[in-house]
């Protein structure tokens, strides 16, 4: 007989580090275009799996010596290779027992809702913005028209529906949302990626996480964000299954710009004179003189992309300041990561270039 316990055993044996199960009614109140119940209306349960990010892949960024391991291994490696294989195995197990398994890997699928800030609109990636901008300038680049998707029938949302992964992790009892908007688990802090399966199997749900607060509201993430993208006072609050989730108001597009471009003090790949000349309005966006949005971030990307490659389809991370700050604080006295490693992630002050 299929059970919550048997599914967890298979998931962990297949390679997931954590597995939790939630009931679909915990998504009550979600915006319709982000409600996973519209993906599979017959689903009764959601199975959440967390895949641990090795702390060591951040050492290169922490020391300013190696920048591609984090996005290639912690993002590309987990999202595109490892997690899908585990989803496949667990999905097979569920369907061998006569129930359907709708697997949902961690993805950047474009939908009618922005995966950056959750707003409705015609959302395209910075790379697609570049393609469009180049076409407008030269009329030679291949141009792809990106349109709104539209519902296939009156009682559903337009494809491809993008639900909130971190809140789904909360719904599965795996942890909580930190002030930085990162998902935090008591086992790994912010160091995991998530993937899900929706099924019509009636499974016993896990309780929502109600242990000691993982996020201590130390505000290290706010202080150590190089782009000042996180507010210390303004926040967003939502409820999942009655559990209150609150995080800092985040400037998502500016965060994207700093994560992939770093600014003059955090990007060793771009010559100083490029920043000095403010090519493509780079500093206007990174320093807040121009509002960060899809088009402006695309301009920054276009001005700087020739100086560094992407890895496994993921941009190199030149930031990760909030994550590393969080890990460092959680390793200190009283944090959930205390005593997990013989040596701390951070042994001195975070590096910063002269300009």
Description:
By secondary structure, this protein is an alpha+beta fold. It is 31% helix and 15% strand. The chain has helices at residues 4-14, 59-63, 69-96, 126-138, 165-171, 220-223, 252-261, 272-277, 282-286, 294-304, 321-330, and strands at residues 18-23, 45-52, 101-104, 176-177, 183-184, 192-199, 230-240, 243-250, 310-311, 314-315. A 4-stranded antiparallel β-sheet has the order 1-2-6-3, sandwiched between helices. Strand 7 and strand 8 form a beta hairpin. Helix 1 packs across helix 3. The longest helix is centred in the N-terminal third of the chain and has 28 residues, at 69-96.
Overall mean confidence score, pLDDT: 86
pLDDT under 50 segments (min length 5)? 140-147
CA gyration radius, whole angstroms: 21 Å
Summing up helix and strand content along with how strands pair, one would put the structural category as: alpha+beta
Shape: globular
| Biggest β-sheet: strands ordered side by side in the sheet | 1-2-6-3
Q: Could you describe the largest sheet, including whether it forms a barrel?
A: 4 strands, antiparallel
SSE pattern, N- to C-terminal = HEEHHEHHEEEHEEHHHHEEH
What is the first-to-last residue Cα distance?
Answer: 62 Å
The percent range for strand residues is 5-15%
Number of helices: 11
Range of helix content: 25-40%
Number of strands: 10
């Amino acid at each position: 007989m299929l059970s919550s316990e048997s599914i967890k055993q298979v998931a962990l044996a297949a390679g997931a580090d954590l597995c939790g199960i939630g009931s679909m009614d915990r998504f009550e109140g979600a915006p319709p275009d982000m409600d996973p119940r519209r993906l599979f209306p017959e689903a009764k349960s959601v199975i959440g799996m967390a895949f641990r990010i090795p702390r060591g892949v951040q050492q290169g960024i922490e020391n300013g010596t190696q920048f591609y391991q984090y996005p290639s291994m912690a993002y590309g490696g987990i999202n595109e290779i490892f997690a899908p294989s585990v989803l496949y195995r667990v999905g097979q197990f569920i369907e061998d027992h006569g129930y359907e398994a709708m697997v949902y890997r961690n993805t950047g699928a474009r939908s009618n809702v922005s995966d950056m800030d959750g707003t409705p609109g015609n959302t395209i990636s910075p790379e697609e913005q570049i393609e469009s901008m180049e076409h407008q300038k030269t009329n030679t680049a291949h141009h792809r028209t990106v349109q709104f998707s539209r519902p296939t029938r009156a009682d559903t949302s337009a494809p491809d529906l993008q639900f909130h992964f971190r809140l789904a992790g909360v719904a599965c009892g795996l942890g909580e949302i930190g002030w930085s908007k990162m998902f935090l688990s008591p086992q790994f802090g912010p160091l995991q990626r998530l993937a899900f399966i929706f099924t019509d199997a009636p499974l016993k749900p896990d309780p929502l996480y109600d242990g000691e607060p993982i996020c201590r509201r130390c505000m290290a993430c706010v202080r150590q964000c190089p782009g000042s993208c996180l507010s210390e006072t303004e926040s967003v609050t939502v409820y999942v299954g009655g559990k209150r989730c609150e995080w800092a108001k985040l400037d998502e597009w500016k965060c994207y710009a700093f994560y992939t471009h770093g600014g003059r003090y955090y990007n060793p790949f771009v010559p100083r004179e490029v920043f000095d000349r403010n090519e493509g309005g780079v500093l206007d966006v990174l320093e807040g003189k121009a509002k960060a949005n899809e088009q402006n971030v695309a301009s920054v990307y276009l001005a700087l992309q020739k100086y560094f490659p992407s890895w496994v389809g993921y941009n190199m991370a030149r930031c990760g300041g909030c994550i590393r700050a969080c890990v460092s604080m959680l390793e200190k006295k009283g944090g959930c990561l205390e005593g997990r490693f013989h040596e701390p992630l951070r042994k001195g002050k975070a590096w910063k270039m002269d300009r």
